[in-house]
Amino acid sequence: MELALPLALIFVLISVCSTTSAHQNPEFAKAIEEHYLPTEQINVPNSLLTYIVRVGKSDEGGDSLRSKDLLAWYRSLLPSSLESDQNQRRVIFSYRNVMDGFAVELTPEEAEALEEKEEVVSVRPERTYSLHTTHTPTFLGLQQGLGLWRNSDFGKGIIIGLLDTGITPDHPSFSDEGMPLPPAKWNGLCEFSGRRTCNNKLIGARNFVKNSNSSLPVDSFGHGTHTASTAAGRFVQGANVFGNANGTAVGMAPDAHLAMYKVCDLSGCLESAILAGMDTAIEDGVDVLSLSLGGPSFPFFDDSIALGAFRAIQKGIFVSCSAGNSGPDYATLSNEAPWILTVGASTIDRRILATAKLGNGQLFIGESIFQPHNFTPTLLPLVYAGANGNSSSSTFCAPGSLKNVDVTGKVVLCEVGGFVRSVDKGQEVKNAGGIAMILMNSVIGDFNPFAEVHVLPATHVSYRAGLAIKSYINSTSTPTATILFGGTAIGSLFAPAVTSFSSRGPSFASPGILKPDIIGPGQNILAAWPVSLDNNVPSFNIISGTSMSCPHLAGIAALLKNSHPDWSPAAIKSAIVTSANTVNLGGKSILDQRLLPADVFATGAGHVNPLKANDPGLVYDLQPNDYIPYLCGLNYTDKEIGLILNQNVECSEVKTIPEAQLNYPSFSIQLGSTPQFYTRTLTNVGPTNVTYFSEMDPPLGVGISISPAEITFTEVKQKVTYTVGFIPGDVKNRGNHTFSQGSISWVSGKYSVTIPVAAVYL
Predict the structure, then answer these.
(1) 3-state SS assignment for residue 619
(2) Comparing C-alpha atoms, which of 58, 55, 57 is closest to residue 91?
(3) What is annotated as the active site (predicted)?
(4) Count of Cβ atoms closer than 10 Å to residue 235 Cβ
(5) b/e string for 15-51 if b means 16 or more Cβ within 10 A?
(6) 741 - beta bridge partners?
(7) Is 352 in contact with 367 (CB distance < 8 Å)?
(8) Rounded to an integer, what distance in angstroms lies between the CA atom of residue 299 and that of residue 508?
(9) How far apart are the first and last CA of the chain?
(10) Pseudo-torsion of CA 598, 600, 602, 606, nearest 10°?
(11) Which of 39, 162, 675, 756 has a CA that sits 20 to 30 A from residue 56's CA?
(12) In angstroms, rounded to a whole number, what is the distance separating the alpha carbons of residues 94 and 85?
């Protein structure tokens, strides 16, 4: 499992460690492409770069221009040197929903000339973003014929759009048996044809990757197929990988419609394609957007995903995005905008057990998907690849590093790290003659090993276990070990726990907004895959990442949108956040990779609870224009805010608010020596004539006051505002903490509407 990334922008897909090397193998991609239609190569001159060009409104009425006319206007802005028909084709995408502008291939000199045009607001090179199940529905409490699945009709009639690597349309997870026709509002297209095409389940599929080996939205990577089936896959019996995690695979909203917008390939996700995908999805009429991709923090006016997401929520579209896989360090988030649901990753209570047994009788439980039934339980010679002064590359079992190390017929202890994928470590051990591998986690991964498809008998154990195994090797001249495979085990009381890789807050772009918002299942998730890894069909794979947690929440949002069609995107988010679980299955606080209580910058509000989210009692609602005073409070210029809202804004005419004053379902306070007071407004979405009482769990060294202390709601959709005061206490009570956390709850007989509080000490 690799968390140290060798490139600034690669696929943020922790599954690179939990799949075989097949998904990055050119032969794998070629086999999938040949499964569909002949490919088409699009060549781009190497001297040209793609630029994102933002323009002001057209005098001819930008909103009313048809796409053809809009493209003609954009082309008219190009430098006179580009007037030929061939050069006019350099406009790759024109945008009408996510922004006023277009993507165009230019030389740096041409870009400089274009920026001098009066109509042009900005010109800059595009960025490359990175790509950040059988059991999870049961783990989340979703059951056929009961609760949220029954109330939401399995998400029927809701359209989930995904921006990803494409999709495998003929996988049974996307069968349309019993599915209704798409809603009348659907305006999308399907670029598949022939024997494998769209249907009433997969109602749209578009490809925006211009340099792809195929013009089709086919998934040659696996990521998009996996996320799509996680969000809304149909019921498929007998799903497993190498016989493990066997059961019925199903997504969160199995009767929702799907639309795939291919914006990524093996080289990453180009910004121009992401903008085009979001622009088209909004035009097509999706209800929910799921983006398991992201980049580093940018101001919201310069963050394409934030811009597209704001235009989406203006249309009532809910947006779920992955938080990123750069944990466990703080301030490593992607997708921080408050109008986005930012999703971190948790474990589930299923493990695929592989136990390292040492010659001294010690047992260390790890995980592995590949579990050969004929592997010997007899103890074998054990060797540490980094022993006896071997190079650091040997420590990590890097390719070619074990040529001069005697591992023949032995179990080899390797360490995670060195920019080497876990399965490649196993391949090196196998190539050098090793019998099996024990993979020792990194110190930052600690107690958070992964189940992976290895090429030889192996187990991935914790960092602490690895230290104990090293100590044993050093204690004897004849160390021995073997691996005992235990198959699938369900019921870990430590679940859910925050994964080590899940990115942490606080938000860099807006520290006064608590992020991530929520955590959901993201480790060792089984879902659909383009090709079989074990010669069984239908094909599934188990992979990990916030890329996996994001579509879980997108599917849950689809269920809630069906169950409550009048709820805004902010109301859906509030319902998810205020109903979250803060304890694991054992009834203890949710833990992190160190087996210590996870803090609020790792969990957000906690772990998603779909059943409670369907009936939250109260919500903290927001409309798109409610963000204007907040954005002015970020000290953005009128022009920058106008880019976000797609309308003219004068902050001098607006009552600016601090970040913490936004009606958000959490607090993130930068607390100095003076008290701070804010308001929140609750909207009743539950029964009438109910009285709620305030309860507080203050952060260390902070006092909380709430007025009024009780609220009675007599009408549905009634709104009531309360005031919260945060009063600094004795600094001695803070100890050596730089921040602390607490919560505020409104409690009635049935409901407990809770928001988390983070207090960062200045």
Answers:
(1) strand
(2) 55
(3) 164, 223, 547
(4) 18
(5) bbbbbbebbeeeebbeebbeebbeeeeeeeeeeeebb
(6) 758
(7) yes
(8) 9
(9) 36
(10) 90
(11) 162
(12) 17
Per-residue tokens: 226: 């996996």
Q: β-strand 676-684 against 618-619: which pairing, if any?
A: antiparallel
| Token code pair at residue 209 | 């990757």
Q: Which is nearest to 434 in space by CA: 399, 394, 397, 407?
A: 407
**Residue 223 annotated to the active site:** yes
Contact 301, 634 (CB under 8 A): no
Gyration radius of the chain over CA positions: 26
Q: Which of 551, 575, 571 is nearest to 254 (CA)?
A: 551
Of 502, 547, 563, 574, catalytic:
547
Decide the pairing of beta strands 436-440 and 525-528. unpaired
CB contact at 8 A, 220 and 28? yes
Choice among 18, 23, 164, 220 that is catalytic: 164
Helix 271-284 and helix 304-314, axial crossing angle in degrees, nearest 10: 10
CA 753 – CA 402 distance, rounded (Å): 57
Query: 649 pLDDT band (50/70/90 cuts)?
Result: very high
Separation CA 660–CA 511 (nearest Å): 9
**What is the pLDDT, as a whole number, of residue 18?**
36
pLDDT in tens, 15-70: 333 333 333 343 434 433 333 333 233 344 457 899 999 998 655 544 455 666 88
Which listed residue (223, 257, 454, 564) is catalytic? 223
Q: What is the biggest distance separating any 2 CA atoms in the chain, rounded to whole angstroms?
A: 84
